[in-house]
């Protein structure tokens, strides 16, 4: 697997990308935390080319130790996105830690690289709506499935039958997604699991992005 990326990038001191011309139809993973790492694993197992960005040195070290294309860089920066070939990327998965950083990255991708489809996790419904206004292609609520898994474990401890637990969880999931679908129809958003509207629908642009909660590169951190 590691050899499949050898032609994609050439690095020099400080993590600066010298060449990204060979990157084509790749995925940009913005944030290499637990969610980003899972996405990277799924992509790498299928030899789907990707590049991951993070501003935490420990996360980058994890990726590099696995010989994965993970680099220091602020995913909300137009320059950084350009250096990882965003203009030729097929999609971006935005999984940064803070709502503001996610918003800023979605806005940057939508504004500067509008052909890139952006898939982003949302902290809650309000955050998801703001992400869609910033130009997200699809928004996924981050709390639903983990909450359902935890609830299932608690119900199992309460000695409910497995079949009954499954029915309870499925009913709640269906009801919750139905509520999100109703909200999406009323608001024109694709909230839910993000696939209620055509993927080719033009992205809305935010008029006044709030970058107060940026996931900025800290002092001394090398950036792409």
Automatic annotation (TrEMBL):
PANTHER family in alphabetical order: K(+) EFFLUX ANTIPORTER 1, CHLOROPLASTIC-RELATED, K(+) EFFLUX ANTIPORTER 3, CHLOROPLASTIC
UniProt feature, compositional bias: Polar residues: 203-224
Natural source organism: Stylosanthes scabra
One Pfam family matching this protein: TrkA_N
SUPFAM superfamilies (alphabetical): NAD(P)-binding Rossmann-fold domains (SSF51735)
Keywords associated with the record: Antiport, Ion transport, Transport
Region annotation Disordered: where it falls in the sequence: 202-224
InterPro entries, alphabetized: NAD(P)-bd_dom_sf, RCK_N
Gene3D superfamilies linked: NAD(P)-binding Rossmann-like Domain
RCK N-terminal domain: residues covered: 24-141
Protein name per its UniProtKB record: K(+) efflux antiporter 2, chloroplastic, variant 2
